[in-house]
Amino acid sequence: MNKKNLIVIGISLIAVVLISCHGPEPVIPNEQNPVSFYRLRFELSTTSKTTRVTAQNTQFFLTAHLMGVKGVLTKQGVNMHSLAVRQETGGNSIGITAD
Predict the structure, then answer these.
(1) Which of 38, 51, 64, 76 is the most buried (most CB within 10 A)?
(2) How confident is the model over 15-39, as pLDDT tens digits?
(3) What is the pLDDT of residue 76?
(4) By the 8 A CB rule, do 98 and 65 touch?
(5) 77 three-state secondary structure
(6) d(Cα 64, Cα 83) in Å, to the nearest integer?
């Protein structure tokens, strides 16, 4: 079963941020993976000049990896606590995908 949650957030009544978080069934512990975990994919898409989404209660996150970029970005960031994107001027659709 594939789980999917969508959250739409209005930013300053100018841009809309779409965050998609979904993942497959958990990875069950075995010799290669001694810890059971879910792989989550976060997709951040916006038309704003700068957007940052910060997660709370990240003590159970194991890793964070940038998987893809959409649009022309002047800066992007993915870490255990946040996703961030920036473009030269607002109005264009930009985004990142992270696991």
Answers:
(1) 51
(2) 445 555 555 667 677 777 777 777 7
(3) 94
(4) yes
(5) strand
(6) 10
